[in-house]
Amino acid sequence: STNNSSAPTATQLVEKLFPKSLVEPFAENNVFAIVVLAVLIGFALRKSTQDFSSVHQPVQVLYRVLEKILI
């Protein structure tokens, strides 16, 4: 008889790391997929030739607010 509660295969682990949507890892509390998404988005932003300076200040403000809340 087969064991249905066996460890996930390598393919299943990779599928979990690369979610089907941006919302899925947050809904499933999948920290590894969230980290992978953050890294991929970071790489994409670094490769982009577009100027993101207009986004910098609001993100910095949001970061400071979250920092005050969490610390």
In short:
The protein has helices at 10-17, 24-27, 31-47, 53-70.
Name some characteristics of this structure:
about 70 residues; mainly alpha
What does this structure look like?
The protein is built from four helices and no strands. Helices cover 66% and strands 0% of the residues. With 71 residues, the chain is mostly helical. It is flat, with a radius of gyration of 18 Å.
Flag low-confidence runs.
Answer: none
**Portion in strands:** under 5%
Q: Distance N terminus to C terminus?
A: 52 Å
The count of β-strands is: 0
Biggest pleated sheet: none
The 3D shape can be described as flat
Rg from C-alpha positions? 18 Å
Considering DSSP H and I runs of 4 or more, what fraction of the residues is helical? 55-70%
Structural class, by secondary structure, is mainly alpha
The helix/strand series, from N terminus to C terminus, equals: HHHH
List the total number of helices.
Answer: 4
Write the layout of secondary structure elements.
Elements: H1 10-17, H2 24-27, H3 31-47, H4 53-70
